[in-house]
Amino acid sequence: MFENLSDRLGGVFGKLTRQGALTDDDIATALREVRVALLEADVSLPVARNFVKSVTEKARGQAVTKSVTPGQQVVKIVHDELVHVLAGEGKSPELRIDNPPAPVLMVGLQGSGKTTTTAKLAKRLKDREGKRVLMASLDTRRPAAMEQLAVLGTQVGVDTLPIVPGQTPVQIANRAKQQATLGGYDVVMLDTAGRLHIDDELMAEVEAVRDAAKPRETLLVVDGLTGQDAVNVAEQFDGRVGISGVVLTRMDGDGRGGAALSMRAVTGKPIRFVGLGEKMDALEEFHPERIAGRILG
Ligand code: GDP
């Protein structure tokens, strides 16, 4: 489907096996291809542009060693820089859920996989860290979404807050926190309502919930296949609500994962987990090298 970057650069450099430093011409030619590859992998244009700029600086003056071709050398520089940007400064710290009951706010657009991810993450915290988790759906407009979380809760063996019709999202958030305190839960996960598009009402609602719940973590769930849109969503949620991390879903699909790079570069917020399917255990920690490999093709 896509021509991978190594092949592409192989074509550009041809049979050239010259050694010595990469020349400015080599670099300029190669990085045009890198830019196209990034855009094909759904990296947003400004992010691709900046990325190419910083790689150009790193590539200048680098000696081409005997064992590799200039093309391979550039691929390595690009790969290392991708991992560097995706990983951010050091390893992502653990989720801040040490002070029970720690509120975790789940935000994102409708259909991004927010409810599924809430249940997956609750299961993970229970199974791997022995946490007692309480989940609550704040989607007062869609009773089906509340039911969905209850069904998933039963499936993964995690409690959900009983549904009381007629309450506002803030009232539900308060009730969830109270219940979590009384019930001795470690973590209370709040699955906020989504919309198909970002609108002011949604943002105001999520802000009000945030102010009431005072979350320790606010995780934005984004569909990893939506590319450039994912970046706009991340920017807007981060600007209005403030996010502490990102979960990229549908990474089991055939997308190239460029959204990860764009979101990391634009928001500076760590990608914590990736969703790899519909099953309840299809959630993994984020591995920058895997996404870097995928972006390069
Ligand atoms: P919400 O509206 O954001 O709460 O989205 P849902 O959690 O209801 O998910 C919407 C659909 O996406 C459901 O059919 C999920 O099973 C599916 N889904 C969620 N995460 C993933 C994922 O990582 N991979 C795949 N393939 N499907 C997912």
UniProtKB/TrEMBL annotation:
Primary role: Involved in targeting and insertion of nascent membrane proteins into the cytoplasmic membrane. Binds to the hydrophobic signal sequence of the ribosome-nascent chain (RNC) as it emerges from the ribosomes. The SRP-RNC complex is then targeted to the cytoplasmic membrane where it interacts with the SRP receptor FtsY. Interaction with FtsY leads to the transfer of the RNC complex to the Sec translocase for insertion into the membrane, the hydrolysis of GTP by both Ffh and FtsY, and the dissociation of the SRP-FtsY complex into the individual components.
Family indicated by similarity: Belongs to the GTP-binding SRP family. SRP54 subfamily.
Identification of the protein by name: Signal recognition particle protein
Quaternary context: Part of the signal recognition particle protein translocation system, which is composed of SRP and FtsY. SRP is a ribonucleoprotein composed of Ffh and a 4.5S RNA molecule.
Positions annotated to bind GTP: 108-115, 191-195, 249-252
Parent sequence residues shown: 1 to 297 of 492
UniProt organism field: Amaricoccus solimangrovi
Subcellular location: Cell inner membrane; Cytoplasm
Membrane topology: Peripheral membrane protein
Source organism superkingdom: Bacteria
EC number(s) given by UniProt: 3.6.5.4
Domain SRP54-type proteins GTP-binding positions: 270-283
Keywords: Cytoplasm, GTP-binding, Hydrolase, Nucleotide-binding, Ribonucleoprotein, RNA-binding, Signal recognition particle
Any GO BP: SRP-dependent cotranslational protein targeting to membrane
Main location: membrane
